[in-house]
Design goal:
The structure holds two protein chains of two kinds.
Chain A (H helix, E strand, L loop, with lengths): L2 H30 L4 H6 L5 H11 L5 H13 L13 H36 L4 H15 L2 H15 L15 H34 L3 H8 L4 H12 L1 H17 L2 H7 L4 H10 L3 H28 L2 H4 L3
Chain B lengths: L1 H12 L5 H10 L4 H14 L7 E6 L16 H10 L4 E3 L5 E3 L2 E6 L5 E6 L13 H12 L14 E7 L2 E6 L6 H5 L24 E7 L3 E6 L12 E6 L3 H9 L5 E2 L4 H8 L4 E16 L9 H9 L3 H7 L5 E3 L23 H11 L6 E5 L7 H14 L4 E5 L5 H5 L5 E6 L5 H8 L14 H12 L3 H18 L2 E14 L2 E2 L8 H4 L2 H4 L1 E2 L1
Parallel strand pairs in B: 1-10, 1-11, 14-15
Antiparallel strand pairs in B: 2-3, 4-5, 5-7, 6-7, 8-9, 9-10, 11-17, 12-16, 12-17, 13-17, 18-19
Helix pairs in contact in B: 1-3, 2-3, 9-11, 15-16
Classes of the chains: A mainly alpha, B alpha+beta.
């Protein structure tokens, strides 16, 4: 078997095992939280009878292990089950929310990844001169400010004062693509500001590392322009660490944006997950957790594969 | 003079001035009756509701776990959903009287034990079926039977039997209750086809708006129901958006994305009221923020200590700092002037360090710190309020130790379990219900563990009493018993603070709940 195929299948199997572990851990942790779905739903107005009634209706009176294996059996057959609290089909609700999350992440990535890499290249080209310092200063500032604050500042000045873009990023199916893009403009700007610095700095560092090599000196000596050297010779050799950090940030754009979702009232997965954690709605929390874990594991695997493919020595083993 | 006339005309248009008031004031300005009358007519015409437009309401308290099943309503978005698609038998009107909705008339037997509701004929559900007394009966059964998990289960307890008789629905109570119609106005008791037995979360009722889109935690879309039985409900459509973040809610209103928001934070209400095109409405309600002591657990089983703590809290300061003036001081009983039959003459308790110290010494407490549990979820500003309490108590020589609890599990692990903690009450439409919910010896939610046989007897006596003057006298005594011997420290009653766009008109003050007791989309219209 080709070593790459072997490696990918190994990683895939390991990923599945990790997912299984993650689901068990999430289930264990939600069980360990004080209170259960019945208590969370009834809140301050719970009485012993109504609690007992609701527990029985939700099936919470059965042992935890039984419930976990039932859930596991369901998911292996592609059935995510029903939400405990509102009885809606989980697959359907998540499908909608996941689509929204991916939509936002996609547009944030489209803007931020090329921008970050371009700024990184620019910073290397003008290393230690004012463009480099300016880029670093601005991106490091935006990553250091909490994202909700950037969000609120943008909402106040851009949406309320200037009247551009909507302060609410509530998208729905009846909107056209243009309307949707207009609605998510502000969150995309915030997310770009948040992830830019990490990717930009990593690109800069990785390329600077390569720039010490002998072949760069050769390229300089044969008279290539600075930017061509960086673009043609340094970037391809620095691709592995860059892809790694890009993937980490993409994963963040999918699973870590709950704060931005709250500020802009975006109907994504983060808010959906938080609501159900508060209500101890275990099947939904499990489903979301497994999806998030799968995205993380998948993107990391992709980063590894790209790193291997980008390296001729790994691509053509002896 | 013209400016003043203009101002008065605007008040008439906004429905805030009657013809009698207007004519009287116009005469005082020297305007002839004929002229004043024509100005009034013009202004009043402008206040005729106009139909049309889609109104958007941004509300706190929407989670993706919400259901449209009225039995499960526990937060604001579901509450407003119910008000779009559903109707109850009766409503509590803004002036505290009973207003008929799906019931055409309500009659009680002389002993207030048997209540008969005449059910309105020809009312259509959104699924095309005609509403019958049978549907009413099934609805009430679903909220009161043994498997019920309804939020209204507690208030349905005193019912002995229910039946239908032609176009009548009859309730027989185990004990007399002069306030039964108020219980039937509870927002959980929306009449559903077949009582919602087969599909409780279908969102089908008899209300002015028909459910179109149901995305819990995101948005709920309604369109005007063509065959609605009533006159109100002036919009073509209603969209309810779940906007839990307070800043996002205010920004959405300011930028015109929504027309109505609830729960304006007191600290931004002043600023928001200065914004153009927006009106902030502050409505005194019955909700109150409390510190509760279990009167059956040491050291709170000593009334001198309880009195010491009651005198050691600065109520005015809390209204000022925690509610930013959007509220009023409490008097250590759960009742205020927003309730019918409230006795205004009960003296107001104030902060008195010397008296507190006296009571504290008399209690013989050993001087060890008294643990007060609080949390962000207890009420907005509960942690700060506890700190203020700690300072004023320290000035009276009473050491309080604040224990900050996590919000998760506060209602199951701390409230009603620990002997001294911060909490809130949403209030009830009538005194009887408030006292039976939390102060009767046998009440499920007796969160101060207050048990007083005389008090219980008086509660039952007042409940069966149909003479308002006598009831008021009994309620006054009961209030004073709670105030002087109970475990409740009630520093403040909070206002409902809502805001609407100036594109809308028709707001009226309704102490029964936020956003005109949930009727904002029925009673307001686009000017």
């Amino acid at each position: 078997m080709h070593p790459i195929v072997k490696l990918v299948s190994q990683r895939f199997a390991l990923g599945l095992l990790l997912l299984f572990g993650a689901s068990a851990m999430i289930f264990g942790l939600t069980e360990a939280l004080p209170g259960d779905a019945a208590q969370a739903v009834l809140g301050q107005s719970a009485t012993p009878e109504s609690l007992a009634n609701l527990r029985e209706e939700m099936g919470l009176d059965r042992p935890a292990l039984t419930r976990y294996f039932e859930w596991l059996g369901g998911i292996l057959q592609g059935d995510l089950g029903q939400s405990l609290t509102n009885k809606l089909d989980i697959a359907e609700s998540i499908g909608n929310r996941l689509g929204n999350t991916l939509f936002l992440a996609f547009w944030a990535a489209i803007v931020s990844v090329p921008l970050a890499i371009f700024l990184g290249l620019l910073a290397v080209r003008y290393r230690n001169r004012w463009p480099d310092k300016l880029i670093s200063a601005v991106t490091l500032t935006t990553i250091s400010i909490p994202e909700f604050l950037i969000g609120y500042v943008l909402v106040y000045f851009v949406a309320v004062k200037l009247g551009m873009f909507s302060p609410l990023a509530m998208i729905n199916d009846s909107m056209s693509l243009g309307q949707k893009l207009n609605a998510i403009a502000l969150p995309v700007i915030v997310l770009t500001m948040v992830v830019l610095a990490h990717m930009m700095r990593m690109t800069r560092a990785a390329i600077l590392n390569v720039m010490q090599s002998a072949y760069i000196e050769t390229a300089e000596l044969k008279g290539l322009t600075n930017f061509t050297i960086i673009y043609r010779h340094a970037l391809p050799n620095a691709i592995a660490p860059i892809v790694n950090v890009v993937m980490l940030n993409l994963a963040y754009l999918v699973v870590g944006v709950v704060v931005v979702e709250v500020v802009f009232v975006y109907p994504g997965m983060g808010q959906y997950l938080v609501d159900h954690v508060t209500k101890r709605d275990v099947p939904v929390v499990l489903a979301c957790g497994v999806i998030f874990a799968a995205i993380y594991i998948g993107l990391n695997m992709l980063a590894d594969i790209v790193a291997i493919l980008a390296n001729p020595r790994l691509r053509h083993p002896k | 003079m013209n400016e003043q006339l203009d101002f008065m005309a605007r008040r008439v248009t906004a429905g805030k001035m009657t013809r009698r008031e207007f004519m009287g004031k116009a005469a005082a300005l020297g305007v002839s009756a004929a002229v004043a009358s024509s100005i009034f007519a013009q202004a009043a015409r402008a206040s005729e509701p106009k139909r049309g437009g889609v109104v958007k309401l941004g509300s706190v308290g929407g989670e993706s776990t919400n259901s449209l099943d009225p039995a499960t309503y526990a937060s604001q978005v579901p509450y407003h959903n119910g008000n779009q698609f559903g109707d109850t038998l009766v409503n509590v009107a803004p002036d505290g009287t009973i207003e008929n909705r799906l019931a055409e008339s309500v009659e009680a037997s002389a002993d207030a034990k048997v209540w008969t509701f005449k059910i309105r004929q020809g009312v259509e559900f959104h699924n095309g079926k005609t509403m019958t007394p049978e549907d009413v009966l099934k609805t009430m059964q679903r909220h009161s039977n043994e498997e019920s998990k309804s939020g209204a289960l507690g208030i349905m307890k005193g019912i002995e039997s229910m039946k239908t008789d032609g176009e009548y629905f009859q309730v027989t109570l185990t004990d007399a209750n002069a306030d039964l119609p108020y219980l039937m106005a509870d927002y959980h008791l929306i009449i559903q086809p077949d009582g919602g037995m087969d599909d409780p979360g279908a969102g089908i009722g008899t209300g002015p708006y028909k459910m179109e889109v149901n995305e819990p935690g995101v948005r709920h879309v309604y369109s005007k129901f063509a065959n609605y039985w009533g006159d109100d409900g002036y919009f073509d459509g209603v969209e309810i958006l779940a906007i839990n973040d307070a800043t996002a809610r205010t920004a959405a209103l300011q930028s015109g994305q929504v027309h109505i928001i609830n729960r304006v934070e007191p600290k931004v209400a002043g600023l928001l009221s200065r914004a153009p095109n927006v009106t902030v409405h502050s409505t005194p309600g019955r909700g109150h923020y409390v510190f509760i002591m279990h009167v059956d657990k040491a050291p709170f089983d000593n009334n001198d200590l309880r009195m010491a703590l009651k005198h050691a809290i600065n109520r005015e300061d809390m209204v000022e700092k925690i509610l930013r003036g959007y509220g009023s001081v409490g008097n250590d009983m759960p009742i205020n002037a927003a309730y019918p039959l409230f006795d205004e003459t009960i003296p107001q308790r104030t902060y008195d360090a010397a008296k507190a110290m006296e009571y504290y010494k008399a209690s013989g407490h050993d001087g060890s710190p008294i643990e007060l549990r609080t949390s962000d979820v207890a009420f907005p500003g509960a942690v700060d309020a506890a700190a203020l309490f700690q300072q004023t108590a320290a000035a009276a020589g009473i050491p309080l130790e604040i224990k900050r609890e996590p919000g998760d599990g506060y209602w199951s692990e701390v409230w009603n379990v620990q002997p001294f903690c911060a909490s809130y009450w949403g209030g009830r439409p009538v005194q009887d219900q408030m006292y039976s919910t939390a102060y009767l010896s046998t009440a499920d939610w007796n969160d101060t563990k207050f048990k007083n046989a005389d008090f219980d007897a008086m509660l039952l006596e007042a409940r069966a009493e149909l003479d308002p003057a006598k009831r008021k006298e009994i309620y006054s005594q009961m209030g004073q018993i709670v105030r002087d011997t109970g475990g409740l420290i009630c520093p403040m009653f909070n206002d409902f603070v809502d805001a609407t766009s100036n594109l809308l008109t028709g707001w009226e003050t309704d102490p029964n709940g936020e956003l005109m007791s949930g009727h904002v989309t029925r009673k307001m219209w686009f000017a």
